[in-house]
């Protein structure tokens, strides 16, 4: 819970410090990583209660038995979509100083080539990919730690769900910002015969799905005991 609170505070400070799309994305990354770090730190600091006893079992524990499958599958899909969008953003970005992709979409109109913004640039893409990789590694390590720990199966499921939800914050929140930024940056009215209505609608749908998932993940992190009986 502390990690989520710190992440929200950092997100507000970074995002409201400037109206640029870079600050919004960096704030989203800070939110996700702070939540992941908070959940990880809380798990490391946790100690078994005085009544806990380690008992050996003959059946090995499998990670897939404790991870919420529907949430995990949804986040894997969203992580793939985020990666694809970031690659598209780099490929289609206008060339800035030094030949690097700038924060604008390169478009061709009857009057000639012109940039359209806002659009994720190189300064947005690489931090987003790095945050995604870092969050994924932290989630894998944390889930393995949770499954190997002594205690009851129900509590292990709750902790594993919280770990996956924390990872979800590093996926869904940046995906929300990236998809909304790209939807706003598409040229309108269409230039050079390009039809932007369908891509804009698809990006809006992705943003909506990411927002719903991020809200759910935040609820899981803030109120993990509410999902004590959840299996999926």
Automatic annotation (TrEMBL):
It comes from the Bacteria. The chain crosses the membrane at residues 25-46, 66-91, 125-143, 164-183, 203-223. Keywords: Membrane, Transmembrane, Transmembrane helix. This is Uncharacterized protein. It comes from Streptomyces zhihengii. The lineage of its organism: Bacteria, Bacillati, Actinomycetota, Actinomycetes, Kitasatosporales.
């Amino acid at each position: 819970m502390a990690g989520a609170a710190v992440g929200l505070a950092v997100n507000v400070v970074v995002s409201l410090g400037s109206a640029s799309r870079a600050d919004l994305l960096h704030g989203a990354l800070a939110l996700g990583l702070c939540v992941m770090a908070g959940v990880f730190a809380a798990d490391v600091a946790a100690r078994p209660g005085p009544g806990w006893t380690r008992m050996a079992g003959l059946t090995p524990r499998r990670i897939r038995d404790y991870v919420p499958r529907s949430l995990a599958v949804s986040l894997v899909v969203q992580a793939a979509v985020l990666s694809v969008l970031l690659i598209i953003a780099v490929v289609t970005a206008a060339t800035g100083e030094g030949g690097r992709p700038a924060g604008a979409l390169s478009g061709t109109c009857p009057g000639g080539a012109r940039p359209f913004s806002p659009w994720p640039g190189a300064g947005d893409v690489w931090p987003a990919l790095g945050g995604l990789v870092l969050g994924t590694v932290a989630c894998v390590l944390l889930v393995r730690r949770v499954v190997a720990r002594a205690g009851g199966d129900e509590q292990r499921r709750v902790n594993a769900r919280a770990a996956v939800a924390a990872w979800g914050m590093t996926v869904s929140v940046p995906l929300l910002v990236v998809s909304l930024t790209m939807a706003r940056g598409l040229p309108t009215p269409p230039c050079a015969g390009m039809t932007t209505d369908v891509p804009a609608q698809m990006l809006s749908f992705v943003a909506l799905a990411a927002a719903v998932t991020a809200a759910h993940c935040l609820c899981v992190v803030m109120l993990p005991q509410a999902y004590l009986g959840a299996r999926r």
